[in-house]
Amino acid sequence: MPKEEKERARAEKRAHSIILHRLGVPKGDYILEPMAEGASSKRFFRIFFTRAGSVSVVLMLLGGRFRVEKTDYYQINELMRKLNLPVAAIYESYGRDGAMLLEDLGTTTLYDLANDLEGDEETLEEFYRQAIDSLVLLQTRSGRYSEGVAAFQRAFDERKLGWELGFMMKHFAGSLLRYKPSSRGEKILNGFFKDVCALLASLPRVLCHRDYHSQNLVPRRDTLYITDFQDARLGPHVYDLVSLLRDSYLELSDALRARLLLYYIECHPEFGHRDANALSHQFDLMSLQRHLKHLGTFGYQAEMGRNDFLRFVPRTLDYLEANLPKFPQYGEASDVLHEMFERARTFLSAREES
């Protein structure tokens, strides 16, 4: 049995044990449904209690034992609730079992909704404006609740941003594509990575969700809930904005993206129209790092047997190829990267044909 299947089987066994011993519900009185797996190591299951009219909750399995008040998930959940940001309620925590019982927000994410709307940008824009409202609130007011929150002790500093690009070279370029640049190309890329990361690390820092995109935002009735926030840390204000508006999972139209970027500037108390050009430049620079990092995530997930992530590679390559010409000072690095991108497109084409 492949490693990924073994891990799924172990997680399901853990879930059944917790439901029996912690909730006191025997098999036959509930239905356990594995939920879609993201790029994190956590596992989620939806539990339908059949004797209670199929009332449902979500069981989240973490890596191991914990003290709930020390977990990033609990700390950020509490911080967001203090800010009146919509998040799932934590019903119970089982530290010894490495699990939490959460409110079920349903099965439709913003990603799903966007695909269902089939071009209805007016409705989609309303939810994206909510997402920006929440982002501005998180960036401008979370600091007042920072005491005791571990996320404020971590940051996207130059080392962390650089590590993510090294991760991309290892898992996407190396393991997935079997691509290694020439010694000169490697030197050029290293200089490019170092320069981009230094510039980004020098920007003022705010609290970042870290994965603020369409698959982690859940429309429920007229409210947009925020999920998967436990990896929050300090970083540039454009970090989450890039995740949201240049989403590797979902492409927005240029016109909608431009309107939303302007809306962010108008809503944010620290920006004004005079800052639009500077913000746009920082946004594009952050996009370079984020999308290269995304390639690393997709390559790593493919190594773990989650090949479905590879379908998001072409859009991410498109973003990078459209963005790189805005930085002519990195022309040599662009040439090396384009060589890797061509290798990626050839690899994906061959994979589709096989």
Number of domains: 2
Strand residues, percent: 5-15%
What's the number of helices?
Answer: 11
**How many E-type strands?**
9
Question: Which stretches of 5+ consecutive residues score pLDDT under 50?
Answer: none
Which structural class fits the helix and strand makeup?
alpha+beta
Main sheet, how many strands, which sense, barrel?
Answer: 5 strands, antiparallel
Helix content: 40-55%
Mean pLDDT: 93
Provide the CATH superfamily of the largest domain. Aminoglycoside phosphotransferase (APH), C-terminal lobe
Report the end-to-end length measured between terminal Cα atoms. 23 Å
CATH class of the largest domain: Alpha Beta
Secondary-structure blueprint of this entry?
Blueprint lengths: L2 H19 L8 E5 L8 E7 L5 E7 L10 H11 L7 E5 L4 E4 L7 H8 L3 H21 L16 H19 L6 H19 L3 E4 L8 E4 L2 E4 L6 E4 L1 H8 L8 H14 L8 H28 L9 H11 L7 H23 L1
Antiparallel strand pairs: 1-2, 2-3, 3-5, 4-5, 6-9, 7-8
Helix pairs in contact: 3-4, 4-8, 5-6, 5-9, 6-9, 6-11, 7-9, 9-10, 10-11
